[in-house]
Specification:
The protein is α/β, with parallel strands linked by helices. Helix content is about 40%, strand content about 25%. It has one domain (about 25-150, about 155-190, about 230-240): Rossmann fold (3-Layer(aba) Sandwich), CATH 3.40.50. It has helices spanning about 5-15, 25-35, 50-60, 75-85, 120-125, 150-155, 165-170, 185-200, 210-225; strands at about 40-45, 65-70, 90-95, 105-110, 130-140, 175-185, 230-240. The structure holds S-adenosylmethionine (SAM). S-adenosylmethionine binds next to helix 3 and strand 2.
């Protein structure tokens, strides 16, 4: 596996992983309940990756129409395969989550809104929300009195703030907070433990770009292991004010 491009190396690492970012199935039930998403809702999974949460949304709301979107064709193909058993009520689109039509009762966005920016993304999604609709998103969050290990983990995301800072970015978009909870521990294990196993499997044959991708992922996991009780996403359920 020595001739891979950096993009191919990235996709090789992520192949066969259940999800592409931290998250736990139980959090979707909580968010659907806080958002009071109706049984026959129209729901969007924005930045769905390979569709772990799309599947959970389809199970949690068996009469809902679910549309998922991601910009990486490889993830879209994986998500289509995983959601095929749900039939036509689940559609996965290859596209830009900045361009959503709707109208949606819920836009779910796990570990992806930071690509648009919280304020910018929420403002852009406002016209895609149905009356009474809500957005649920997870966003990196600094806990009080972060250690140097926690700051090191987030060094490549200088926009990170505490939860008050996230609330301020939500308010700046013209939204109010319906509910919030921290994702610490389980949600991160669900992402990093399978990834560590995937790295161990690929390592013996890895050279070049793939070896570099494995090194980078391994270093990230080591930074998380240095402070797992301090590394958090805030899961925010918000609606237009
Ligand atoms: C950290 S992953 C999270 C994936 C998935 N939500 C999960 O939790 O497993 C972020 C995803 O957002 C997607 N993404 C980033 N910017 C996007 C955009 N503008 N439009 C569509 N997808 C985007 C990436 O391709 C990637 O699959």
């Amino acid at each position: 596996m020595s001739d891979l491009t950096p993009e191919e190396a990235f996709l090789t690492l992520y192949s066969d992983l259940n999800r592409e970012g931290p998250g736990a199935a139980a959090d979707l039930g909580w968010a659907l309940s806080v958002a009071a998403t109706p049984a026959e809702a129209r729901i969007c999974d924005a930045g769905c990756g390979s569709g772990a949460d799309t599947v959970t949304l389809a199970k949690e709301r068996p009469r809902a129409q679910i549309e998922a979107v991601d910009k990486i064709a490889h993830f879209v193909a994986a998500a289509r395969q995983r959601t095929a058993p749900f039939g036509a009520r689940v559609q996965v689109r290859h596209g830009d989550m900045a361009q959503l039509d709707g109208p949606y009762d819920l836009i779910w966005c796990a570990g992806a809104l930071y690509f648009l920016g919280v304020t910018e993304g929420l403002k852009g999604w406002r016209p895609a929300l149905a009356p009474g609709g809500a957005v649920a998103f997870s966003e990196p969050c600094l806990l009080p009195r972060p250690s140097q290990a926690a700051r090191d983990f987030w060094a490549e995301y200088p926009q990170i703030s505490d939860v008050a800072g996230i609330r301020a970015r939500v308010a700046a978009a013209g939204y109010r907070v319906l509910g919030e909870q921290m994702q610490i521990g389980d949600a991160w294990e669900a992402y990093y433990i399978p990834m560590a196993k995937r790295i161990a499997k690929l390592r013996p044959e890895a050279t070049g770009a793939l070896a570099a991708a494995l090194d980078e992922a391994e270093a990230e996991i080591a930074r998380w292991r240095a402070a797992p009780s301090e590394i958090a996403y805030a899961l925010m359920v918000v609606a237009p004010a």
